[in-house]
Amino acid sequence: MFSYHPYGWYVDVMKTITTAEPRRVAPDTEKLTINLGVVDLGQIDLLVQEGFYSNRTDLIRTAIRNQLTVHGEEIKRTVARRTLVLGLHDVRRSELERMQAQRQMLDIQVVGLVRIADDVSAKLALATIASIEVLGALHAPAAVRTALAARIR
């Protein structure tokens, strides 16, 4: 993997990539499509051209973050009032099996990302998940997503 070279150490990147163990990584971003008027778009392009932002996405991301900061206290109050989980919520098979043994149902309410493990079956999900409310993104096996379609808000 590492080899000595007179000017420094050489790393065989291809060998590193092919021998690395594959792992499931959640994306840190989600794609969002917006429609803008031509005047707004032109103004964005002007600011990018003048060097205020590196590209359109940079400006839009900055504008969204600024608005979230402006409304930050309201977001915190709403999360607390509605008892929502803020961030990432992983749903594992072991957790659902434990709930099934106790004859309990899970109500999932998240602002962020919900990940249902790949080894959760549709049958187990139906037996243990009463509802899912996600303001953000839901990553789940296709069969689980289909089985829970009526319970996802």
**Tally of strands:** 5
Order of helices and strands: EEHHHHEHEHEH
Number of helices: 7
Placed side by side, the strands forming the largest sheet appear as: 3-4-5
Rg of Cα set? 22 Å
Strand content: 15-25%
What value does the average pLDDT take? 85
Q: Give me the secondary-structure category.
A: alpha/beta
Shape: elongated
How far is the N terminus from the C terminus? 48 Å
Low-confidence spans: 1-22
Helix content: 40-55%
The biggest sheet amounts to: 3 strands, parallel
Q: Topology of this protein?
A:
Blueprint: E1 2-5, E2 8-11, H1 13-19, H2 38-49, H3 56-70, H4 72-81, E3 85-91, H5 93-101, E4 106-116, H6 122-128, E5 129-139, H7 142-147
Parallel strand pairs: 3-4, 4-5
Antiparallel strand pairs: 1-2
Helix pairs in contact: 5-6
Explain this structure.
With 153 residues, the chain is of the alpha/beta class. It is 43% helix and 24% strand. It is built from seven helices and five strands, in the order E-E-H-H-H-H-E-H-E-H-E-H. The strands form two sheets. Strands 3-4-5 form a three-stranded parallel beta sheet, covered by helices on one side. Strand 3 (85-91), helix 5 and strand 4 form a beta-alpha-beta unit. Helix 5 crosses helix 6 (122-128). The longest helix has 15 residues, at 56-70.
